[in-house]
Amino acid sequence: MLSQTQLDLWTGTEALLFDLDGVLTPTAVVHELAWRQLFDEYLASVGKGPAYTDADYFDHIDGKPRFDGVRDFLASRGITLPEGPIDDAPEHETVQGLGNRKNRIFNEIIENDGVAPYPGSARLVEAARERGVKLAVVSSSRNAPAVLRAAGLADAFPVVVDGVVAAREGLPGKPHPATFVRAAELLGVPRGACVVVEDAVSGVQAGAGGEFRAVVAVDRGAGAEVLRAAGATHVVDDLAELL
Question: What pTM was computed for the model?
Answer without folding.
Answer: 0.78
